[in-house]
Amino acid sequence: MSKRYTPDFPEMMRICETNFVQLRRLLPRVDEVGESVAYQVNNNSYRLTIIELTRYTSVVEIVQTEPAVSHWSLPSMVVRLYHDAQVAEVCASQQISRFKASYDYPNKKLHQRDEKHQINQFLADWLRYCLAHGAVAVPVY
Q1: Conformational region of residue 99, where left means phi above 0, alpha means psi within -120 to 50, and beta covers everything else
Q2: What would the pLDDT profile of 48-80 be if each residue is shown by its tens digit?
Q3: CA distances (Å), origin 128, targets 20, 41, 122, 125
Q4: What does the alpha-carbon distance between residue 141 and residue 138 come to, in Å, rounded to a whole number?
């Protein structure tokens, strides 16, 4: 019998706080729905677009635009930033939305036990990569 996965909430909050700070550095300068900024990082291109704004939150879509192998394989994430708590959390990725804190395993959709932690850790790694390798803003057309 396998041990049940227990989410590490302090670690998750640390990741989400770091993601908030790092993502703010890459966001469009104007806080308005529809504003976007594109970045070139090595041979990859990404676009960050503000898709929703409320008094205390903003929602940003992050899409890899190049290289395009196929429309279905392009990485994409939707991230909600909570300005009052200063945390950023992935709320959708690759057609998966509303991540649970933990999943029974195995499950029908083949989610990992710690899927929510993994996808937020992926965002942290991606942001660190972009900032370390000189994300260069390019014009958005």
Answers
A1: beta
A2: 999 999 999 999 999 988 887 655 556 789 999
A3: 12, 12, 10, 5
A4: 9
70-113 confidence digits (pLDDT tens): 555 567 899 999 999 999 999 887 555 555 454 455 546 544 56
User: What is the Rg, in whole angstroms, of the alpha carbon atoms belonging to the chain?
Assistant: 16
Tokens of 97: 């939305």
- What is the Cα–Cα distance from 43 to 35, expressed in whole angstroms? 23
Write the CA distances from 129 to 33, 51, 79, 95, 126, integer angstroms: 26, 23, 17, 23, 5
Q: In the beta sheet, which residues pair with residue 39?
A: 46, 137
Residue 126 CA to its chain's centroid (Å): 8
pTM for the model stands at 0.79
**What element of type H or E holds 51?**
strand 44-53
Do residues 104 and 139 touch, judged by C-beta distance below 8 A?
A: no
